[in-house]
Amino acid sequence: MSGVPYAMILAGGVGSRLCLLSEKRAKPAVPFGGKYRIIDFTLSNCVNSGIFDVGILTQYRPLSLRDHIGIGRAWDLDRKRGGVELLQPFQGWAENDWYRGTADAVWQNWHRVADRQAEHILVLSGDHVYRMDYRPMIEAHLERGADATVAITEVPIEQASQFGVVRTDASGWITGFLEKPKNPPSGRISMGVYVFRVAALLQELVKDDERNSAHDFGRDILPALVERGRVAAFLVPGYWQDIGTLDSFYQANLDLVSEDPPFPLEDPRWPIFTPSTEYPPARIGSGAHVRSSIVTHGTIVNGTVERSVLFPGAVVEEGAVVRDSIVMGETWIGPDAVLDRVILDKRVHVGRAATIGTGPSTPNRACPEHLSAGITIVGKETRVPEGITVGRNVRIAADLAEEDFPRDGLASGDVLER
Amino acid sequence: MLAGGKSERLHALGRMRTASALPFGGKYRIIDFTLSNCVHSGLYRIGVLTQYAPLSLQEHIGIGRAWDLDRRDGGIRLLPPYVRQRATNWYRGTADALVQNRNVIADAQARHILVVSGDLIYKMDYGSLIARHEARGSVLTVVTTPSPDDEAERYGIVDVDGTGRVRGVEVRRDGGPGTQVSASIYLFRGRDLLARLADPSLGPDLVADVIRPMIEEGLPVHADPFDGYWHDVTTIDSYYAASMDLLRPLPPINLNDPDWLVYTPSEDRAPSLLGGSADVVSSMIAHGTRIEGTVRRSILFPGVHVGAGAIVEDSIVMHDTRILRGARLHGAIIDKQVRIGERAEVGVGEPVRHREHPHDLGGGLCVIGKGAEVPTGAKVGRNTLVEIGVRERDYGRDGVPSGSTVRPRPAGAAR
Which residues of A touch B (CB under 8 A)? Predict the structure, then answer.
């Protein structure tokens, strides 16, 4: 790769299938694994691969992401040459507007690519959890002289229809690129990790700009490049998880506390960087029972925690039980409260002896397609009243006060909005 | 900030680092408390006088980023002794360290100069101290505190008259717990301190040669009693006691107070992972720890692993130490990167005092130095010392009896 490798991370998605979690933040800024945000995995992959020149394309609710990234210090990306830059839509040039799609986001920021005079660039996605050294892929791309190289992972074929499925020939060239096909031919899917030859990408972006398309890498740019015949597949072994849905978010977190975690978060050879909080170490009280769980700095546990992930500053009071749950930062779980398969967003307050996640697993009334696995979710800064009972697959909006709750609680599948 | 002293009484814990750099409370170094006091009090011009084993401290402080002390004006500056054209000297004492940095102090043109120790645990707003000092028109304010233990002579007993004037600071042995002692926090009027530092006949010690003469000359030297938590950590017992204070249900120093956080450079460690067989109570657990065994009343620093069936009780375990399956620790202070072999037992047996250092190791604790190994199944008694870097081959057949020390054998020596 001539010049300094440059990576663009697509981080603008709305993430509507993540329900409440992405209501107030972009998907890559969704908290994950106790102290991280989802984008930390991609950013850490970059710097661990020696890539220190990164642009992040944002559009939807960028504030949380902007606070998180700051000047990039946590990743050693506060640099004189390169570093990290957030690329927001802007006005001022005739052709500039809101990003119409992922490809359009790159196209509107093409000046950044052109400035670097690089022959190849990396285009990554900010909402996947995986660990990958990009260098071998870049090397393979250069060796084959490809227009584009697409990182491929294998998923069970029944899941493949949610992703971009690829067909390859015997020598590893991609012959077909099917975005979210109804009947996937295989479980070989694109990881959303691409290396492009800049000249080839530019030609397709120019053409796509004129077209009435989705302006999307998966739907438009890659199929067009595949037509030209020089798109290579690069198979990447190991864990890869798209955090596209509430279920996948939940599962990926719970994977970390399973008997056989897919990868160690603590690995000195491949650290996952994130800005650290100033909290003291976790305090585990005299009556606590904590097992198969992740705890972080600033957590205080006096109750029972099993198969759960506690983010910084979460407090579990005496007699409270937290099971199979994800509890985000600065949340307070009052004495004798019981949580089962619950996702609490930041700064939620659960009153004494409240029960969340009980009863039948009736799918959610409003979004049965995203909330049917028995997970109840409570939005940011909501205060759950004392003694209340909340069923499963319930969605409780952010910023609610105690008096917003019905006295007799919420049945499975209910929705509570302001 | 005085951070250059050697703390002999910390033994293996204090040999490779000055007490200010000693790890404390699961993620901090001792000096973090004083540095955080400074920035919370609005003091952003800090010099740190270093001399003994400063590397650990230098690395920790860096450019002062963790405390917001990487500043254009002021910020933090490490002041080690240096070579000059005439008369190159190590610091001969606390006053001499200030004399040798007289130019730095003078350049600050500060109305007040605060001289504090970097090896104490307390939270104090120096801003209100300065306000009282100014209101009284003091040339020097000596902060006093009740002695936290029966070793008042370690701190210096402060005699105060009915008007709050200090009549003497003395090292004598008649002070029990509660005696008003010096908290090692001295606030000087800048020009008075500088004038004394300019005297070529000045002796090397701050208390004996600067403070005591000021009192004797009848200058306005006032005591400022501090009744908050204040703890010294320069002996094994005091370090252990201050650490265990953090594990009380209502700890005397609240590390979670959002208005007075103690700052420290954070490490890039993953969250703690408590496994299916973990049993942890009454403990502090830092990031990067992995626990499969039992942990009670203990402090685990980043990266500590506790294997299945292992038991850690009443202990302090520093960074990246591995406690393998079935090992047991009772009342142990384990430095960084130690390996405790499977089924080893540490802190067991009769609590006989340490033979060479009965005064420092009499409370039953076992201290294991950085990078040491404890062999599989070995028994390490109480009041014992396992020196830095001890290997399995350095142990005798019957482990480490209570009251004894294991040292590395010279290379090539036969057993």
Answer: 33-35, 74, 256-257, 259, 261, 264-266, 271-274, 276-298, 300, 309
Residues 274-303 of B with CB under 8 A from A: 274-288, 290, 295, 299-300, 303
Range of the domain at B283: 273-406
* B88 in contact with A, Cβ within 8 Å: no
Determine the number of helices (DSSP H) and then strands (DSSP E) in chain A. 8, 32
Tell me the C-alpha to C-alpha distance, in Å, between residue B195 and each of A73, A360, B68, B212, B307: 44, 81, 32, 15, 60
Nearest chain B residue (CA) to A278? B263
Residue A1 has a pLDDT of: 47
A290–B273 C-beta distance less than 8 A: no
Of A35, A281, A287, the CB nearest to B286: A281
Residues A128 and A240: beta-carbon distance below 8 Å = yes
Residue A111, classed as helix, strand or coil, is helix
A-B Cβ pairs (cutoff 8 Å, strict): 108
- Residue B213 sits in the same domain as residue B295: no
Token representation of residue B382: 């109480």
CATH number at residue B285: 2.160.10.10
Quick check: A291 and B267 CB within 8 A?
no
What is the value of ipTM here, to two decimals?
0.89
CA distance B335 to B55: 17
Contact B274 A259 (CB under 8 A): no
Q: What number of other Cβ atoms are within 10 A of residue A148's Cβ?
A: 24
Same domain, B206 and B338: no
Q: Which residue has the tokens 């056989």?
A: A260
Does residue B91 sit in the same domain as residue B225?
yes
Closest residue in chain A to residue B283, using alpha carbons only: A284
Q: Are residues B209 and B108 in the same domain?
A: yes
Domain co-membership, B93 together with B196:
yes
**Cβ-based contacts of A296 with chain B (< 8 Å):** 271-272, 287
Average pLDDT of adjacent 10-residue blocks, chain B of 415 residues:
92 94 97 98 95 91 93 91 79 93 92 96 98 97 91 87 93 78 96 96 95 96 97 95 96 94 93 97 97 98 98 98 98 98 96 95 97 97 97 92 93 58
Cβ of B27 within 8 Å of Cβ of A257? The answer is no
Q: Distance of CA B388 to CAs A203, A336, B375, Å?
A: 64, 47, 15
**Residue B254 counted as domain residue:** no
The amino acid present at B302, given as its one-letter code, is: P
- Does B153 share its domain with B38? yes
Total domain count for chain B? 2
Instruction: Give residue B314's region: left, alpha or beta (phi > 0; psi -120 to 50).
Output: left
- Give tens-digit pLDDT for B253-274: 999 999 999 999 988 899 999 9
Is the same domain home to B232 and B378?
no
- Higher pLDDT, residue A3 or A131: A131
Among A273, A281, A293, the residue with its CB nearest the CB of B268 is A273
For residue range B147-176, list pLDDT tens digits in order: 888 887 788 899 999 999 999 998 877 777
Q: Which of residues 370 through 389 in chain B touch A, CB cutoff 8 A?
A: none
Please check whether residue B257 lies inside any domain of the structure: no
Q: Same domain for B181 and B315?
A: no
Judge whether B260 lies within some domain.
no
Per the domain annotation, does B255 fall within a domain? no
